TrEMBL record:
Family matches, as PANTHER family: PURINE NUCLEOSIDE PHOSPHORYLASE LACC1, UNCHARACTERIZED PROTEIN YFIH
NCBIfam families in alphabetical order: peptidoglycan editing factor PgeF (TIGR00726)
InterPro entries referenced in this protein's UniProt entry, alphabetically: Cu_polyphenol_OxRdtase, Cu_polyphenol_OxRdtase_sf, Cytotoxic_necrot_fac-like_cat
Catalysed reactions, semicolon-separated: adenosine + phosphate = alpha-D-ribose 1-phosphate + adenine; S-methyl-5'-thioadenosine + phosphate = 5-(methylsulfanyl)-alpha-D-ribose 1-phosphate + adenine; adenosine + H2O + H(+) = inosine + NH4(+); inosine + phosphate = alpha-D-ribose 1-phosphate + hypoxanthine
GO molecular function, one term: S-methyl-5-thioadenosine phosphorylase activity
Name of the protein in question: Purine nucleoside phosphorylase
Amino acid sequence: MHSHIPTLFRNPTIWTSQPRLIAAESTRHGGVSLPPYHSLNLGGQGTDSPENILENNHRFFNALQVSYERVAKSHQIHGTEVLHVTEPGAYQGYDALVTNHVNIQLAVTIADCTPILIFDPVQGAIAAIHAGWRGTAGKIVEKTLKTMEATFHTQAKDCQAYIGTCIDYASFEVGPEVAEHFDQDLKDWDPSRGKFMVDLKGANRKQLLAAGLQADQIEVSPYSTVLNSGDYFSYRHEQGTTGRMLATIGLRF
């Protein structure tokens, strides 16, 4: 039906039976930006033109049949602040957005960090989370679920979650000052590289499980921003000069 669409985004499969939910993760394809931002750069860092980025956003959200005027995003700071969104727009300083409003499309920007989308079908609440290593270590997933509980009476056991495409375990090399923030089962020392490898997807999955989700309520993207950099932007792999992807979730009437 939509043969041209999969180039722009991938949908989590966990929500295929939820017609009211619009959830997707962009790829790097189908936009107008030139190298090194080719092509669907949806984020504002770097020297890509604002016109290109805006056109790319319109293309991405149009493909999802979402009006760009309904989107809520935040300028992220690798922190753990959670914002309860009641109207669309651009916010500052939050790495997680939650809402129970229909027709507000939450979006987080990514280029190696872990995106997590959460849906509470009982209360009709959603969350979009940007978890870099700092946010992951700061338990932003747990904090977001607690905010949803306090704001919408969400119970974690009712929720479903998608852990999106990010840097993979074997590519995320860190020093001891980062590794010390992660449990033993989420990191390995690689003597050949003189670095630790940290599993960001695994760390966020562990937080979801600890909060009360069951394993079958969590989908984890099989893709890596580094190993699949032909399809995704990777800040690390492209030495900081690269575009940005979006992970997005919203409820329609």
